Structure formats: C-alpha cells, structure tokens
Sequence to fold (277 residues):
Amino acid sequence: MSKISIAFVLLAASLVQAAQPMYGQCGGAGYTGDTTCVSGGVCTKVNDFYSQCLPGAAAPTTSTTTTTTTTSTSTTPTTTVTSVPVPSKTPIAGADPNTAAVVTAFNQYNVTTRFGLTFNPSAILGVRFSAQSQSFKAGQDVARNITLNTPELSLWGVQDPGLGPFVIVMADPDVPTPANPSYSPVRHWLAGNYYGTPTSNVLTPSGTAITPYFQPTPGVGSPAHRYTYLLYKQPDNFNQQRVVTSQTSIVNWNVTQFAAQTGLGNPIAGTFMMTVM
Ligand SMILES: *[C@@H]1O[C@H](CO)[C@@H](O)[C@H](O)[C@H]1NC(C)=O
Ligand SMILES: *[C@@H]1O[C@H](CO)[C@@H](O)[C@H](O)[C@H]1NC(C)=O
Ligand SMILES: *[C@@H]1O[C@H](CO)[C@@H](O)[C@H](O)[C@H]1NC(C)=O
Fold:
C-alpha cells in the first residue's frame, strides 16, 4: 500500500472517531451520532433519551489509531476542540422571578391551605399555552379560550432540580364554585415521565398521561377558579402505582393524600391561574 493510501485510511479512521465536544450529546434513545467524547469528557447517561459529555477522569477512547502511525510520514489529523458554551438556563419568560413570589401568591389566594400543601418550592414552574408567547405568574388571569390544548411546561431551578423525571398534577379546588367546592378538587391532569435537558428549561414528556390534560370548565357565572399546577420529583416506582388509574374518578381527588400514598413527597414547584367561563 502506498503512503498516500495509508494516510487516507488513517484519515478516514480518525474522522469516523471524531469525538463529541464537552457538554455535547453522546447517546440516548434515537440518537445516531458519535458516542465518544473529547479528551477529558465522559459520556454520562442523563436519562433514557439523553447522554451527555461531561468533564471526567476517564481516558479518551480515540487513541487506537496512533499505534499504526510509526511507519507513515504523513501527519494524522488531530481533532481540534472548539470552545463550547457551558449550558445555561435563564429565568422563564413571564413566570415568577423567584419562589418567594410564588409562595406569596399561593398563600394570598389560600391555595396552600386549600390543598393542605407543604409548599417550599425550590424551582419555578412555567406553564405556557400555545397561544401565549410566555408563561403566566401565579395568580394571573388566563382567558379560557386559549386553554384548550395541553400547555408546555418549563422548569427553572433556583436550587438544581435535576433533569427528572417529574410528575405534573393539575387540579381545580373550586368545583362547582369557590364558596361551595363540594366536588373538589377535580383532577385535570396527571402525568409522569417529564424530563429536562441541560440546556433548555422546557420539560418533555415520555409516554402517556394517566389523566390527560382537559380544559378548564368553570361553571357559567362562577367566580374564577384557581387552576393549580404542581410539579413533583418522580419516585422510582411511580409508573407502577395504581392509586390513580385512567379509571379513577376525577372528582373529590385529594392531591396531598395522593402524593403521600405514592411517595411523591412535597411539590418542588407550582403555579396557578385564575380562569372564568
Ligand atoms: C383567604 O382566606 C382568608 C381567611 O379565611 C379570607 O379572608 C380571604 O378572603 C381568602 N382569600 C381568597 C382569595 O380566597
Ligand atoms: C386533603 O388531605 C390533606 C391531608 O390529609 C388535608 O390537609 C386537606 O385538607 C385535604 N383536602 C383537600 C381538599 O385537599
Ligand atoms: C379570548 O377571550 C378574550 C376575552 O376573555 C378576548 O379578549 C380574546 O380576543 C379572545 N381570544 C381568542 C383567540 O378568541
């Protein structure tokens, strides 16, 4: 084999082995790209859908081509490490700027006591309907006509909430009216397996909801209902729980009891919107 073709083989080998940059994706369900990391990076599983190159002590895995280079006079191409932005997240547009503001709203509107919550959030929950450019603040009025479809969730960690999975709960404590909530709380949404990524606030669901989201339907003439969203860290065995299934009545659903029965603990984030018919 000529020197040129040897060099070509080496070049091709090293291109195939091009490593992912630090903080780049290196694995996960459906991922078809490179699974090796640049020198100093270790491919680390974040969740079933995302593995990422993180700084670590393991040796790089791209050194195998160097053993055959002694006979070749050509220079093997080296992988240049371009600078990669460190993942960062910013506060959620439109949502509360800090957890104190959320807690104040929950207390002012008696949401904390109504659900019997222990509410010391460590993160901000953003809830955005597709007709909205941004999330709402806790206690904000949201027009019913934009609430038809499942909203997008986002999470901003004041303390690091991790990347999930998380469980979302939405309930209405004011059915049929705030003054006479005899059917309350009504479960509007219950879904687990929401995951974050290191670079975006948006949470993405995997799998199907236990109770799919359904639109607020306060009675005509009723004062605004306090549609409340709570996010919990998901315990390991949550997908096996049978306390609430797709067959379970949505009325008179005690969220706090459910959280205790299924090991959800206390919510790590929450918000609520005021909606009338
Ligand atoms: C919250 O509860 C207090 C005390 O029961 C009451 O005075 C107040 O009107 C309630 N506020 C709302 C918004 O329900
Ligand atoms: C639910 O259960 C908790 C704890 O047992 C209690 O404090 C709360 O008042 C109950 N009611 C509702 C409406 O959640
Ligand atoms: C939704 O209702 C509000 C009033 O509650 C109105 O101002 C707005 O135009 C409506 N939007 C749509 C998309 O129908």
Summary: The chain is about 15% helix and 25% strand.
